[in-house]
Design brief:
The structure holds two protein chains of two kinds. Chain A is an alpha/beta fold. Chain A contains nine helices and seven strands. A four-stranded parallel β-sheet of chain A has the order 3-2-4-5, with helices on both faces. In chain A, strands 1-6-7 form a three-stranded antiparallel β-sheet. Chain B is an alpha/beta fold. Chain B has five domains: 127 residues, Alpha-helical ferredoxin (Fumarate Reductase Iron-sulfur Protein, Chain B, domain 2); 154 residues, FAD/NAD(P)-binding domain; 145 residues, FAD/NAD(P)-binding domain, CATH 3.50.50; 59 residues, Alpha-Beta Plaits, CATH 3.30.70; 153 residues, 3-Layer(aba) Sandwich (Ribose 5-phosphate Isomerase B, Chain: A). The two termini of chain B are 47 Å apart. The chains are: A alpha/beta, B alpha/beta.
């Protein structure tokens, strides 16, 4: 799951400063689960922004809130068309006034980076502002705590490292560990953090696969990954209406 | 979504309500008592019960037997709480409103609880009603059966008076011998509720000797003011409530030695256990597993030959059948023997009603109709000796069925009944529920109570009542997921529930079982998808509405600085420590009542500040005092979140404070004074700054 945290309120206020009508847009999937941009956070941010402007004297912005199931697919964004009302959808005549009902000046997206970009692509005439900092892909350790687990390197070696990813969980990301900095199973960069390679060793021992520690893994060539990546899971077959 | 949210009542019928023949909204009125809202509690009680003050004294409270707190410690003292609401809520002042709508006269034969209840509801439906009573006073078994120490007669008199005020015509000393006569008199329907006053016989030798009386007759004589001379040594045969009542009454008439013979053991005794306990306290001896076989009159005394019993196989009633032990005969002497082994109705033959087994009138259980047109029957005359609350329920049923009959309608049997909550609490839930002692209402000491016929049980004081009511588990009004579609299955609810109630089912969907949820509301406020709601509509937007209401009033008052306090309304907060604040005694301080601070959300706090509050405080229980787990912890989590936001906006976090109203180290009123003073300073400083800037 993608984990993110909401930007500091001050930063969000600076982002929205030039705009009047703002749609705070939540995302009902990863951002809900990591407490960064679900329906509850949308309403909390809404309250906080309203409070902030009330203390600065006077109404500068007006807010709307909405949460879609997933911001990273166009289809979920269709419900917003009426709220956003961009140029081409406003109809030919008479043109509604700029501050007309339903029109928004900017969308403050509490989706991850993927969501923000998808929304921006769907509404080309409306500024879309990021309300969260997308942090990592991770798992929840307990209520309110998340740990990074995957770097999306595109070349998974977890079978050789006992299901523990050294790229993500080792500070240095080394493929042949542990390094000389490991002490009592902890990392030299942070004494409270487990050394990923010590964890790998222990688990390989448990699995009776310690011979995997003795192998040498050559350095990886990250330059071979062309960005941006695209995945195609369908086959090239003639016909069909989805081509 | 919100609209659906506001109207749909998803609460399940709690076990107490399902067990009550009157289906009273017990959970609702107990909750109101827990908030100290006793008048509203009485209103709820009166809606479901025609004579709450009578039930408050003598109800056999099947609700308490069904109460699920029994699985944790002891059931809620529901009857005692009802008595508290009746006495403190001003039941004596209530005047039911009636309107005469119909012309069809209805006759009620017998004025026991079923008859009185039918009269009450028929009158409310707008019918002219006449009650015919054979004895000189109304009440049936309430008057002639139940001793005064259990039901003070003034209580009964008040209810009778109320019926008279409602316009019910009353004819005492008027035994009805023929129903035809009633129809000739112009009555269109008759409700026969003559009770079961005929004592059953043991069927042993010497049962008709002088000095032997049946329990119902004995109690009737005493209750009608006669003072039967019974001597000093009394033996009572039987194990039901009548036997216990007769024993305790005999003691109050001056008997020196009272013995009860019961043929089974204490566990099988049908009498109310608390009554049995009180009887033993008063010095009554109960001989278990003993039955009389022969009674002889000798030298002005009675010699009772008894035999000891042992318990054999279970019989049709599910209780183990007592079997005599050979050669275990012994004899005891007594001045009077009272036989209280049950009663049967005695229906005059001229009524021409079909009689079934046990001399009871045969009726259709749904419509209460008999073999004669326009004649309905109910109460003990149909069921055999039963409870007051059952009789009241039958009376109400009869009123509605008679209404259907007179208006030529098909019987409108209640179809809207809510789904009842089923299932026991799971051991893991029970383990997490806080054990709270049941507050028993005080009783008069045994030495004092046997002197007279004074009421034995005393009413709760305010604090015990509120604390007792707070023990309620609020079964069936817990949380539910309003839309599984919106649920992100984030597992927040599963991880934070203090009672481990939510679980993932096999298809990966979160379920919140209604029979386990304790309705604390923590998950409702923490759900990041805002998809969990409480089942009761009033619980859902309660704080929002109260807050907006208070903000509107505060805006009108224009007093500065404005301070908003979110205060728990359970317990004595509403009436005790913060009483002066609730009444608006301190200028500028406004209180928003919340039903437990765990239901407060961060946006509520921010909203108060947005609307001009200079300071906000939250007052409620600490970790230890709430009846629910973890409530203070979650309130503090949300307060910290709000503080962080205040800091980011440039407001001093000290403007937001939490007060533990039970804190031993500091008097909450003093702490509150300090807080308001500090807010005053902050307000002045800010006002000054603004002036300088201007």
């Amino acid at each position: 799951m993608i984990v993110a945290e909401q930007k500091p309120l001050e930063e969000i206020r600076k982002l929205i400063a030039p705009y009047g009508k703002i749609l705070i847009l939540g995302c009902g999937t990863c951002m809900t689960v990591c407490n960064a941009g679900g329906e509850r956070e949308v309403s909390l941010l809404h309250s906080a922004l309203r409070l902030a402007q009330s203390r600065d004297g006077g109404e500068i912005h007006s807010f709307q809130e909405y949460t879609v199931k997933r911001q990273c697919d166009f289809d979920f964004l269709e419900v917003l068309v009426d709220r956003v009302k961009e140029k081409e959808e406003r109809g030919p005549s008479p043109p509604p006034p700029l501050s007309g009902e339903g029109r928004v000046d900017a969308i403050l997206s509490l989706g991850c980076g993927v969501g923000v970009q998808t929304v921006a692509e769907r509404f080309p005439d409306t500024p879309v502002l990021p309300g969260v900092n997308t942090s990592f892909m991770g798992a929840s350790k307990e209520w309110g705590v998340w740990d990074e687990r995957c770097a999306a390197c595109g070349d998974c070696r977890l079978a050789e490292t006992a299901g523990i990813c050294p790229i993500t969980r080792c500070v240095k990301g080394i493929l042949n560990g542990p390094c000389a900095g490991a002490k009592n199973g902890k990392c030299e960069a942070n004494k409270d953090m487990d050394c990923a390679w010590a964890l790998i060793y222990k688990r390989l021992e448990r699995l009776g696969q310690l011979e995997k520690m003795r192998r040498y893994y050559p350095p990886r060539n990250f330059r071979t990954i062309p960005r941006p990546r695209r995945l195609v899971s369908k086959s090239e077959v003639p016909g069909g209406s989805h081509g | 979504m919100l609209k659906i949210c506001k109207t749909l009542n998803h609460t399940l019928m709690p076990p107490c309500q399902a067990a009550c023949p009157l289906r009273m909204e017990i959970r609702e009125y107990v909750d109101l008592i827990a908030q100290g809202r006793v008048m509203e509690a009485l209103q709820v009680i009166r809606e479901g019960n025609p004579f709450p003050s009578i039930c408050a004294f003598v109800c056999t409270h099947p609700c308490e037997d069904a109460c699920r707190r029994r699985q944790v410690d002891k059931p809620i003292a529901i009857r005692a709480l009802k008595r508290f609401a009746v006495e403190f809520g001003g039941d004596r002042m209530v005047r039911p409103e009636v309107e005469s709508i119909h012309e069809e006269k209805v006759a009620i034969v017998g004025s026991g609880p079923a008859g009185l209840s039918a009269a009450y509801y028929l009158r409310k439906l707008g019918y002219p009603v006449t009650i015919f009573e054979a004895y000189s006073e109304l009440g049936g078994m309430l008057r002639v059966g139940i001793p005064k120490y259990r039901l003070p007669r003034e209580i009964l008199d008040i209810e009778v008076q109320r019926l008279i005020q409602m316009g019910v015509e009353i004819r005492t000393n008027t035994p009805v011998i023929s129903l035809d006569l009633l129809f000739e008199m112009g009555y269109k329907a008759v409700f026969v509720t003559v009770g079961a006053h005929q004592g059953l016989r043991l069927g042993i030798q010497g049962e008709d000797s002088p000095g032997i009386v049946d329990g119902a007759t004995f109690l009737r004589e005493v209750n009608l003011g006669l003072k039967p001379s019974i001597g000093e040594k009394i033996v009572i045969v039987g194990g039901g409530n009548v036997a216990i009542d007769a024993a305790r009454t005999a003691l109050r008439l001056g008997a020196k030695e009272v013995k009860i013979l019961y043929r089974r053991s204490q566990a099988e005794m049908p009498a109310d256990p608390s009554e049995v306990e009180q009887a033993i306290e008063e010095g009554i001896e109960i001989l278990f597993l003993v039955t009389p076989t022969k009674i002889e009159g000798t030298e002005g005394q009675l010699k009772i030959t008894c035999i000891r019993m042992e318990l054999g196989e279970p019989d049709a009633s599910g209780r183990r059948r007592p079997v005599p032990i050979k050669d275990s005969e012994f004899s005891i002497r007594a001045d009077t023997v009272i036989i209280a082994i049950g009663q049967a109705p005695q229906i005059p033959e001229d009524f021409r009603l079909r009689i079934g087994r046990g001399s009871v009138i045969r009726v259709d259980p749904v419509t209460l109709t008999t073999n004669r047109e326009g004649v309905f029957a109910g109460g003990d005359a149909v069921t055999g000796p039963a409870t007051v609350v059952q009789a009241l329920a039958t009376g109400r049923q009869a009123a509605f069925r008679i209404d259907d009959y007179l208006q030529h309608r098909y019987p409108l049997v209640d179809r809207s009944e809510r789904q009842a909550l089923m299932g026991e609490l799971l051991p893991k839930t029970i383990e997490m529920i806080r054990k709270l002692t049941r507050f028993e209402p005080a009783v008069l000491p045994p030495q004092e109570r046997t002197k007279e016929f004074e009421s034995v049980e005393l009413v709760y004081d305010w604090q015990s009542a509120v604390n007792e009511a707070r023990r309620c588990l609020r079964c069936g009004m817990g949380a539910e997921i309003l839309s599984q579609d919106k649920c992100a299955t984030c597992l927040t609810c599963l991880r934070i529930c203090p009672y481990h109630v939510p679980y993932l089912d096999d298809s990966g969907i979160i379920q919140i079982p209604a029979d386990q949820c304790q309705a604390c509301g923590i998950c409702v406020a923490e759900c990041p998808a805002k998809v969990i709601v409480l089942r009761k509509p009033q619980d859902r937007r309660h704080i929002d509405e109260e807050l907006e209401h208070i903000l509107k009033s505060a805006a009108q008052s224009k007093l500065k600085p404005l301070i908003i306090g979110f205060c728990c309304q359970y317990g004595l907060y509403g009436t005790g420590i913060l009483a002066s604040l609730w009444r608006g005694a301190r200028a500028g301080v406004w209180i928003v009542p919340v039903l437990c601070i765990a239901k407060l959300e961060t946006p509520h706090i921010l909203r108060a500040f947005e609307m001009g509050a200079e300071g906000v405080f939250i007052a409620g229980c600490g970790q230890e005092q709430c009846a629910r787990e973890d409530t203070a912890f979650w309130a503090l989590q949300r307060i910290e979140k709000a503080r962080k936001i205040l800091g980011q906006i440039g407001l001093e976090p000290e403007r937001l404070q939490a007060f533990n109203l039970y804190a031993p180290e500091e008097d909450p009123t003093m702490a509150l004074d300090k807080f308001t003073e500090r807010i005053g300073e902050l307000y002045l400083a800010r006002a000054l700054k603004q002036e300088v800037r201007a």
